[in-house]
Amino acid sequence: MGLSPPAAWPWAVSFWLVSSLSAESTRLSALCTLRSFSALAQRPSSIQPPSPRVRSYRDYCCCAGACARVRERLISTAGVASSFPVGITAMADPYGDGKGFRQQQQRQKLKPALEVEDFINLLHGSDPVRVELTRLENELQYKEKELGEAQAEIKALRLSERAREKAVEDLTEELTKVDEKLKLTESLLESKNLEAKKINDEKKAALAAQFAAEATLRRVHAAQKDDDMPPIEAILAPLEAELKLARLEIAKLQDDNRALDRLTKSKEAALLEAERTVQIALAKASLVDDLQNKNQELMKQIEICQEENKILDRMHRQKVAEVEKLTQTVRELEEAVLAGGAAANAVRDYQRKVQEMNEERKTLDRELARAKVSANRVAVVVANEWKDGNDKVMPVKQWLEERRILQGEMQQLRDKLSIAERAARSEAQLKDKFQLRLKVLEEGLRMSTTRANNMRSSVSTTTTTLVNHAKGASKSFDGGCRSLDRYKGHINGTVGGYSIRFAV
């Protein structure tokens, strides 16, 4: 009479776990189940399927083993998974140097590993929680690599920034030195200009003296014609000597002026070079400003990445907490399934016993009615026989003893019926208690699922379907069949003894 549990019961448990985790894990588990069903569909028809009882026991053992493996893996991986972040949602290509393309290539490299793990899970049984954890670990490694690259770039940018700051400091020092040199050259130019002005003034004074001397000579020549004057050579000799000295001084001053012109030209060239260096320094300063702006942008991006990392850490912790809650719900569901199956089997056995005892009661009532009718007939026949036999006295004592024996047996049967009714009532009370426990468990599971995120809104429906599957599966357990057979044999024996005794 025991019905086998539905073959899709372990798949229901796996689907329930997968739906509570994420959309990607559901896709992977659906792929695993489709492949497994296709493999079952492609099985040759020559192989005989196992018996329903063996298949149900195997499915139940497989489900219990899968739940235990999931629980152990969750416990073993929860401690490792809680210490790392899930990953950083990096930008597609923030620097424009092809990093987004490399990230896509690395993601494409991770996909075949997941397909291989899916195939291994198909061989060893679907384990969506392990698939989800491996996916999260791969994403973590990938995001850690991205973090390492970003940190290395940040270090390189900081080093380049320090080098540029040193270059700017050197350029500022050179600028200060060039400014000092410019100030010195300007002061020298002013002094040389003053000297040149003095020389020009002296030259003008010498020319004026020369013109005055020539005028005096003309006057002397004019006066010499009239009066007897000393010779002109005696007058011109000192003047010529003064002229020679003045010419020598003029030549020296011209040489000095040429040297000053050369110095001014060299200073102008130095000034032009200084202006060029100043322009280069300004360009470098603008580059430094641009680099500082880029550095600030990178720091902002780093802060954004750190905030995303914190958010992902929180999400990872929430997922770990959800996984722990799911493990607890799995344990509670296992206990509920086991308790519900045992209770349902016990209630079913008691119902069978009550039905059998009611049937036996009906048969006993029928046999009692028949016995009463036969006893009345026998009494009538005996009375008629004794009446025919010269009106002899009836053996009332014998008839009373037989009646007393029959009444005692009837009382025993009534006691048995009362005991059976009490057992049926107690079984009905137990059944009500177990139903109340199942309702309380369902309400607790629904409350726990309503507290979860919107991503887990479908968990409530899956839990109710799983409990319904568990109820359907609990109907298939065969507990108490042997005790029922023994009880049937015992009752049949007693009834047979009664019928034999009654016939005797």
UniProtKB/TrEMBL annotation:
Domain of life: Eukaryota
Segment forming the signal sequence: 1-23
Keyword DNA damage: no
Keyword Iron set for record: no
Coiled coil: 133-209, 236-263, 288-430
InterPro entries with a match to the protein in the record: MAP70 (IPR009768)
Keywords (A to Z) from UniProt: Coiled coil, Cytoplasm, Cytoskeleton, Microtubule, Signal
A biological process from GO: cytoskeleton organization
PANTHER family membership: MICROTUBULE-ASSOCIATED PROTEIN 70-1, MICROTUBULE-ASSOCIATED PROTEIN 70-2
Family in the record: Belongs to the MAP70 family.
Protein name: Uncharacterized protein
Organism: Zizania palustris
